[in-house]
């Protein structure tokens, strides 16, 4: 009888973890989309818009692949999760490397980068952490 209770608790925890990981993948994907459109909406320099816009498209590609593989397999795929994390870090750093970016573009891009990096980092750690 105790084996059944332990199995039920473990399965319930895994389902909660799976739902949270799915939410992480969705949040990282939405963050990439926000980072892509923020420079366009904020009307910043062409160099910043081009750099972050193209990076955002590529980051969105990896974030969508991360989401797709997680939904298909129910497990985190390390490669797209790690690459999504890299793009999140880039979105946080990019406004600091360009001159005359502006407040809205900086704040929006860095906020989107924070979302992407935080949730993608959680997925990477969940993938490499030992099973409970």
How do the helices and strands follow one another from N- to C-terminus?
HHHH
Q: What is the terminal separation in angstroms?
A: 21 Å
Provide a count of the helices.
4
Strand tally is 0
Report the principal-axis shape. elongated
Taken as a percent bin, the fraction of beta residues is under 5%
Q: Helix/strand/pairing class, anyone?
A: mainly alpha
Q: What's the Cα radius of gyration?
A: 17 Å
Record the SSE blueprint.
Blueprint: H1 2-42, H2 46-73, H3 78-97, H4 103-128
Helix pairs in contact: 1-2, 1-3, 1-4, 2-3, 3-4
Description:
The chain is mainly alpha-helical and 132 residues long. It is 87% helix and 0% strand. It contains four helices and no strands. Helix 1 runs antiparallel to helix 2, helix 1 packs antiparallel against helix 4 and helix 3 packs antiparallel against helix 4. The longest helix has 41 residues. It is elongated and about 50 Å long. The two termini are 21 Å apart.
Briefly say what this structure is:
The chain is mainly alpha-helical and 132 residues long. Helices cover 87% and strands 0% of the residues.
Give the tags.
132 residues; 0% strand; single chain
């Amino acid at each position: 009888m105790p084996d059944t209770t332990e199995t039920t608790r473990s399965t319930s925890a895994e389902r909660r973890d799976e739902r949270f990981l799915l939410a992480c993948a969705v949040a990282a994907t939405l963050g990439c989309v926000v980072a892509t459109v923020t420079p366009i909406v904020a009307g910043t320099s062409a160099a910043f818009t081009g750099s972050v816009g193209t990076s955002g498209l590529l980051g969105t590609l990896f974030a969508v692949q991360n989401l797709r593989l997680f939904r298909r397999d129910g497990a985190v795929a390390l490669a797209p999760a790690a690459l999504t994390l890299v793009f999140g870090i880039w979105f946080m750093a990019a406004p600091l490397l360009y001159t005359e970016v502006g407040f809205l573009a900086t704040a929006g891009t860095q906020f989107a980068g924070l979302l992407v990096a935080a949730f993608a980092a959680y997925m990477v750690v969940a993938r490499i952490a030992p099973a409970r």
